[in-house]
Specification:
about 75% helix, Arc Repressor Mutant, subunit A, mainly alpha, elongated
Length: about 170
């Protein structure tokens, strides 16, 4: 990726997060990135192509976050690492993740399949620990993950460490 492409993506990310995808024009992205609007179309074809590049970057970052979890072979560690995910994201990345959450609600064709590897790893972990309904337990953990991550990103959690410890204690981890 060229320096200009990176500037375009970073500007799009900031503006989409701040103003929303539909309210952000490519001319505004170009102006903030310090490039011509034509360069956006050259590299990304359209505003939708630019959005797809931002979403792909999100999926890549998310895969990096959960790669260690899906490769984990100890069931309790799979659950623990999953529940700890929202607490390990550096604050300087919150803007990026806020955008990902915003896009999840704003876009009709948001890729929900990206959670399948996590669902599979969690289901297997709960199955190995002989839970009565491993699939529902996995689904519940993913909902907890989503809710806690949203609350952290919205600055609604007063003590992240206390919440983290509470959740881990609840699952006896």
């Amino acid at each position: 990726m060229t320096v200009k492409q990176e500037k375009i993506l970073q500007s799009a990310l900031q503006l989409f997060a701040l103003e929303g995808y539909h309210a952000t024009s490519t001319s505004k992205v170009a102006k903030q990135a310090g490039v011509s609007e034509g360069l956006i179309f050259k590299h990304y074809t359209s505003k939708e192509g630019l959005l797809n590049a931002v979403v792909e970057e999100g999926e890549k970052r998310f895969k990096n976050l959960y790669a260690e979890i899906v490769l984990e072979d100890k069931p309790r560690q799979v659950i623990k690492k999953t529940l700890e995910l929202p607490f390990i994201v550096p604050e300087e990345e919150y803007g990026f993740w806020k955008l990902q959450f915003k896009l999840k609600w704003e876009l009709k064709d948001y890729n929900t399949q990206k959670m399948q590897p996590m669902m599979f790893a969690l289901s297997n972990a709960f199955k190995n620990l002989e839970y009565d309904n491993p699939e529902l337990e996995a689904e519940l953990v993913l909902h907890i993950l989503d809710g806690v991550a949203s609350a952290i990103l919205k600055d609604m959690v007063t003590d992240k460490e206390e919440l983290r410890n509470f959740i881990l204690t609840k699952y006896k981890l």
